[in-house]
Amino acid sequence: MQDDPLITAFCRYFSLVKPDKEQLEAVYRLRYEVYCREFRYESPENCPGEREIDEYDAQSSHCLLEHVVSGTHAGCVRVVHVDARQKIHELPMERHCDNCFYETEYRPDRLERDAICEVSRLAVNGLFRRRLGESVTPVGDLHLLNVPLEQARTFPLLALSLFMSAVAMMEIQGRSHAFAMMEPSLARILRRHGLKVKQIGTLQNYHGRRAPFHISLLTALSGIHRSPSLSQLYAHSYANLSDPHPSDSLWDAIASAA
Predict the structure, then answer these.
(1) Bridge partners, residue 177, by sequence
(2) C-alpha dihedral sign at 244, 190, 28, 109
(3) pTM score, two decimals?
(4) Which residues in the chain belong to E strands, given as ranges?
(5) Structural contact between residues 107 and 116, judged by C-beta atoms closer than 8 angstroms
(6) Which residues have CB under 8 Å from 11's CB, separation 6+?
(7) Could you tell me if 65 and 43 are in contact, meaning their C-beta atoms sit under 8 angstroms apart?
(8) What's the CA gap between 68 and 151, in Å, rounded?
(9) Would the pLDDT of 163 be above 90?
(10) Are 8 and 232 contacting, i.e. CB atoms less than 8 angstroms apart?
(11) What is the spatial distance between Cα 227 and Cα 111, in angstroms, rounded to a whole number?
(12) Average pLDDT of the chain?
């Protein structure tokens, strides 16, 4: 399978890390910039120290995306786990949007707790969330990054890469079902690239107009494997976020069977 030059460039210019304690602070500050200052989804008064943080962060796997050349924190995402070992047994969407689900078997309240997780707090630094030809965003000036056009062309891949990282964390943690409150536009992008996501509820005013979606790990990995671009992004994410010598990888099993 031939590599996509754009994806290859992206993997060269951006790195994914499991944040340590210091890097987690960078995650919280980045979320503050995006969720509080830029989009005003959260109130700055509720985020002391310019850190956007909540009770779910303590039972989440986090990913931080870094721009290698500038050292800028480009994006982040978390995967929230709920099971008997955790303090909170409800996913964020169950707490905030429990009245919006359709009558379907693929609802978080109808699945085992240790099989589910929620992808949330996906945020992309406003410096990178732009169209070519634009230099100023609400939170900064792209010229400060001093990046050539070749790098700028990879910026639209940031959100997709973060979602691939979330699927990788889902596999690493052994979760069969993931849920996410997504804008319909992001769901369309994921489907267009080959990642099947199923809407399981109505649109809600929750950090913008979003609806609950379900992602099956097996279906997701099968779709990723059929897409050259997603396969490359996923392999990059999994290699960066898994242990040095992962075992029993479902991704490897699917690739071997193809």
Answers:
(1) 116, 216
(2) negative
(3) 0.89
(4) 14-17, 60-67, 73-81, 116-124, 136-137, 140-141, 177-182, 198-199, 204-205, 209-216
(5) no
(6) 232, 233, 236
(7) no
(8) 11
(9) yes
(10) yes
(11) 29
(12) 88
Q: For residues 22 and 103, give the distance between their C-alpha atoms in angstroms, rounded to a whole number.
A: 43
Record the tokens describing residue 146, joined without a space.
């001093």
How far apart, in whole angstroms, are the C-alpha atoms of residue 70 and residue 44?
A: 27
Output the six-digit token pair for 192: 């267009």
pLDDT attached to residue 248 = 59
Q: Closest Cα to residue 154, out of 17, 13, 3, 34? A: 13
Report the pLDDT averaged over residues 96-122: 94
* pLDDT tens digits for range 50-102: 999 999 999 999 999 999 988 999 999 999 999 888 889 999 999 988 889 99
Check: CB of residue 158 under 8 Å from CB of residue 30.
Answer: no
C-alpha gyration radius of the chain: 18
Looking at residue 139, its pLDDT comes to: 39
Kindly indicate the confidence band of residue 226, based on its pLDDT and cuts at 50, 70 and 90.
Answer: very high
